[in-house]
Design a protein that fits this description.
Belongs to the complex I subunit 2 family. Its EC number is 7.1.1.2. The chain crosses the membrane at residues 29-47, 54-73, 93-111, 145-168, 180-200, 243-266. This is NADH-ubiquinone oxidoreductase chain 2. There is one protein chain. By secondary structure, the chain is mainly alpha-helical. It has one domain. It is 64% helix and 6% strand. The chain is built from ten helices and four strands; from the N terminus they run ααααβααααβββαα. The strands form two sheets. The chain has a two-stranded antiparallel sheet. A two-stranded antiparallel ribbon has the order 3-4. The longest helix has 31 residues, at 75-105.
Length: 284
């Protein structure tokens, strides 16, 4: 919400303030900020081993795309600006909901600290059960549905067609090339390729490695009594490979993931909303 508010404020600045102040040129500031964001976010993201910090640098890289669209300040670029913010908000929300759900699902497991002394020294489980990239290694073999949902979200960040993130980046690059920002378009493409490295590394860790978790002996095959929808008491046997995710979380993840994946079947609705907002802005 805070990021969206800031981007809305920037849009107000660009639209309602004279863009070519002789003493203060907003366009050059936005272009320079876009260039630095693209480079810093993509390059430094490759060095991260904490998941949240990795997503923080990922956000910096995406801000570079957003500022590039804003600095062009054409009808097409403002459309791509609004569309990029909408799709990135959905993708980012889905990624964090999935990571939270993964953390809940791993309470039935014990991490083998002998295989990862780094986790034992640096982790703070009071704040987040999942902090390091190697903690989601092999998660596909624990819960394939969450793993696939996270992979789809990461592919959207990368810009793999036909997921929605591809069309958002394509719109900004098209607007940049049409307006003569060839160098910035090339930088954006190059940094996207670099940034794809850490996203694909996450996917490789999730799908192509075995995990280092063992079943928690304190919870394995534990019987608990729960109330069903009919207020009847039933006994449930907790098993690590029979994880039940909260219905609100599973519904949220399903809807958000389908929005990312099935955009290609409902593009008119998205573009109609974006075009309407752009027309209202330019006529204001």
């Amino acid at each position: 919400v805070a990021k969206i508010s800031i981007f809305a404020f920037f849009l107000e600045i660009v639209h309602y303030i004279d863009y070519d102040f002789s003493s203060f040129n907003w366009k050059n500031i936005f272009i320079l900020s876009s260039l630095l964001s693209l480079i810093v976010g993509s390059v430094l993201g490759l060095t991260q081993f904490r998941i949240k910090r990795l997503f923080a640098y990922s956000t910096i890289s995406h801000v570079g795309f957003i500022l590039l669209a804003l600095s062009i300040n054409s009808t097409e670029s403002i459309q791509s600006y609004i569309f990029y913010i909408l799709q990135y908000s959905i993708s980012n929300l889905n990624a964090f909901v999935i990571l939270i759900t993964i953390g809940f699902s791993l309470y039935l497991y014990v991490y083998n600290d002998n295989k990862s002394p780094l986790h034992g020294r640096l982790a703070n489980d009071n704040y987040s059960p999942v902090q390091f990239i190697n903690e989601i290694k092999g998660y596909f073999y624990i819960n394939p549905y969450l793993a696939v949902s996270l992979a789809i979200t990461l592919f959207s960040f990368v810009g793999i067609p036909p997921i929605i993130g591809f069309f958002a980046k394509q719109m900004i690059l098209s607007a940049a090339i049409d307006s003569g920002y060839i160098f910035m378009a090339l930088v954006a493409i190059l940094t996207s390729v670099i940034g794809a490295g850490y996203y694909l590394n996450l996917i490789k860790q999730i799908f192509f490695y075995k995990n280092d978790y063992v079943n928690n002996p304190k919870l394995e095959n534990t019987n608990i009594k729960v109330h069903t929808n009919n207020n009847n008491l039933e006994t449930i046997i907790i098993k690590p490979h029979n994880i039940i995710i909260n219905s609100s979380l599973s519904t949220s993840i399903s809807i958000l993931t389908l929005l990312l994946l099935l955009f290609i079947y409902i593009p008119e609705e998205w573009f109609s909303i974006v075009s309407m907002l752009t027309i209202i802005l330019f006529k204001a």
